[in-house]
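Z., the sequence and structure:
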Amino acid sequence: MIEARITIITTTTGTRTSDYRLLTTLLDPGTHPAAQLITLYHQRWEIETAYLERKASILGGRVLRARTPAGIDQEIHALLITYQVLRTAMADATDSRPGLDPDRASFTTALNTARDQIVHAAGIIADTVIDLIGAIGTNVLDNLLPERRIRIKTRMIKRSNSKYQARGPNIDRRSYQATTNIDIISPDP
């Protein structure tokens, strides 16, 4: 168990400090220092984004169509392969520019470009030009997302919002720059 105090210093909303406990099976402090593991805490949101990409983006909110266990298995594998191919194309594109954070690549852009290529039969018709980054990578690089801000909310189960809840004019939805300071409370074993 690693205990840490994370202080998030923001420019417009003040300072927020929280204590975190991280349980891990990575026990060698030489290869997995406590500070490095705690720093990765803010990357935890990426897995939630990946789930959303598979459920909402690729499926478009639809359910699986197969009616047999073998058909469902085949459909799930097709979705996972499609996701992995698109992610590989996105990683190849961002790797072509040194220092570019892969988080800036848009999954929706990659998915829509791949769909357009299939609809237009690009790469199948003779005399089509093929390059290493490809149309998907080129389109991803042309439409990069802004740098991600640091996530500061604790991990929790959301309660469903009431459709009768008042929205009020005083809700601040602006993004802001934040810096993080991490102090390890419990030393490495």
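Strands lie at 2-10, 15-22, 178-184. Helices lie at 34-39, 45-58, 69-95, 107-120, 134-142.

Let me know what you think.
H.
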